C-alpha cells in the first residue's frame, strides 16, 4: 500500500466521534465530544501511541435548530408541563491516551483511555433565566472516563482499504460523582450530577463500524466511514441513547511533511432512556465541518491540530452546544 493510502487511513478515522456522551446526555445538556477515535490506523505492523488534548466550551443554548436566550428558555415547558431546566455552561477538556497495535495488515486493536476535566453550571428549573432555582448546582469533575477497546479487520479486499470495526466502551468512568447545590432552598449541599454529565455512563456499549478509503489521484485521498454505538445494559435506571456517525473526508498529499485535510462529520443520537434519564432534552442531529493539518516531524512523530465548526445543529428540547471544538495532539510510531 502506498504512502498516500497509509496516510489516509490514519486521517479517515481521526474524527470518528464514537463518544457515548456526544449528544446523548441528560437534561443538563450534552457533550458534543471531540473524542476522535481510532487514530493512526495503518496496514503497517507495530505499535503506535497517540496523545491528544480536546477542548469544547458549551455555552450556547439551543432549542431545535435555533439559539435561544436563557430568559426565553425559562419559559419553555416539557410535554408533561414541567418547567425547562436552564443551563449556564459546560466546559469540557479531554486528555486521551491512544494505543494502537497492528498484528498484521489484516488485524489490529486500538485502546482509548480518556481523562476528563468537566465544569458545569445550571440554574435549574423554574428559574427566570438569570437566578438559580429548583435543582440548581455547580460541579467540577476530574477523573478517568470510559475506556474503549476496538478491533479491526481489513482483509475484505486485496488492497486492505475496506475495513470493519468492532469493540466495546467499558464502564470505567465514575457515574456517581456529585456537585454543589446553588438552589436557594439548600445552598452548599451535595447535589447529584445528571447521568450524561458524569465522567462515565456506567454502561457497557457495543461499537460497530465500517470504513473505506482510496486515492482520487496522486495528490488527493478520500475516505468514508459509518459507525454505531449502543448501550448493552441499563445502570441505575439510566441508558444513554444510541448514536450513529457518518464521516467523509479528503486530504491533500502533495506538500512535503504537511498534510491538510477536510472532513464532514455527521452524528445522530436517540434520546436517553430510563427513570433517571431525560427523554426530552437529549439526543439530536449534528453536522460539523472539520479542517485540520498534520505535520510530520520525522518518520516516527506526527503533530496535528483540528477544529470542528458546526454547520447544522438540531437538538431535542433545549440543550447547550459549543461554537467550536479544538484539538491538538501527537502520534508516535515504534
Automatic annotation (TrEMBL):
Bias category Polar residues: which stretches?
175-189
| Leader peptide range in chain numbering | 1-24
For the region Disordered, what residue ranges are annotated? 175-197
User: What keywords were assigned to this record?
Assistant: Signal
The name under which this protein is listed is Uncharacterized protein
Amino acid at each position: 500500500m502506498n504512502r498516500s493510502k497509509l496516510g489516509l487511513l490514519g486521517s479517515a478515522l481521526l474524527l470518528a466521534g464514537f463518544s457515548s456522551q456526544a449528544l446523548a446526555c441528560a437534561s443538563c445538556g450534552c457533550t458534543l465530544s471531540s473524542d476522535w477515535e481510532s487514530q493512526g490506523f495503518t496496514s503497517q505492523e507495530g505499535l503506535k501511541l497517540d496523545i491528544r488534548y480536546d477542548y469544547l466550551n458549551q455555552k450556547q443554548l439551543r432549542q431545535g435548530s435555533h439559539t435561544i436566550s436563557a430568559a426565553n428558555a425559562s419559559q419553555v415547558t416539557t410535554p408533561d408541563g414541567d418547567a425547562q431546566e436552564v443551563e449556564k455552561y459546560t466546559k469540557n477538556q479531554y486528555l486521551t491516551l491512544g494505543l494502537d497495535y497492528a498484528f498484521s495488515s489484516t488485524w489490529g486493536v486500538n485502546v482509548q483511555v480518556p481523562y476528563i476535566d468537566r465544569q458545569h453550571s445550571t440554574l435549574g428549573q423554574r428559574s427566570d433565566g438569570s437566578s438559580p432555582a429548583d435543582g440548581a448546582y455547580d460541579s467540577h469533575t476530574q477523573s478517568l472516563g470510559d475506556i474503549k477497546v476496538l478491533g479491526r479487520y481489513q482483509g475484505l479486499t486485496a488492497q486492505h482499504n475496506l475495513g470493519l470495526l468492532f469493540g466495546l466502551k467499558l464502564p470505567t468512568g465514575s457515574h456517581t460523582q456529585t456537585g454543589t447545590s446553588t438552589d436557594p432552598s439548600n445552598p452548599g449541599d451535595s447535589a447529584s450530577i445528571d447521568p450524561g454529565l458524569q465522567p462515565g455512563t456506567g454502561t457497557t456499549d457495543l461499537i460497530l463500524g465500517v470504513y473505506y478509503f482510496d486515492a482520487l489521484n496522486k495528490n488527493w485521498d478520500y475516505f468514508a466511514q459509518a459507525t454505531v454505538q449502543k448501550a448493552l445494559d441499563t445502570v441505575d435506571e439510566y441508558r444513554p441513547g444510541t448514536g450513529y456517525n457518518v464521516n467523509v473526508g479528503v486530504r491533500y498529499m502533495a506538500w512535503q511533511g504537511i498534510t491538510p485535510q477536510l472532513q464532514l462529520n455527521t452524528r445522530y443520537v436517540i434520546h436517553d432512556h430510563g427513570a433517571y434519564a431525560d427523554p426530552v432534552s437529549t439526543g439530536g442531529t449534528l453536522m460539523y465541518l472539520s479542517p485540520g493539518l498534520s505535520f510530520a516531524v520525522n518518520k516516527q512523530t506526527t503533530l496535528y491540530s483540528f477544529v470542528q465548526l458546526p454547520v447544522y445543529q438540531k437538538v431535542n428540547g433545549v440543550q447547550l452546544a459549543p461554537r467550536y471544538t479544538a484539538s491538538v495532539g501527537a502520534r508516535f510510531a515504534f
